[in-house]
Specification:
Length: 104
Amino acid sequence: MEILFSDAFTKSLKKYSSIKKAIKKKVDMIIENPIALGEPLKGNFRGYYSCSVRRNFLIIYLYCKVCRKKGDNEIVLCSDCDKCSDNTIKFLELGPHDQAYGKK
Ligand SMILES: [Zn+2]
């Protein structure tokens, strides 16, 4: 499994350092089982997965195996998808619900 963290994710991890442990635990769980744990998003976020760390606090990520299977890589904003292996997980966003989705 190849794991990538976006700058935004890394930044948020610092910002929410008080729950860093809970976040890291969740990240590990996602890496173990990315499809079972995530909830697929729709609309503009099609192809993305979200997983809640706690109530209203989300991790947003992409799993490249799924990007491709769905043929979503043409609409999903998965940069360099074709250069990544199938087993790549990209952690993109982290934060309270409205902020995690607030990227426009
Ligand atoms: Zn991808």
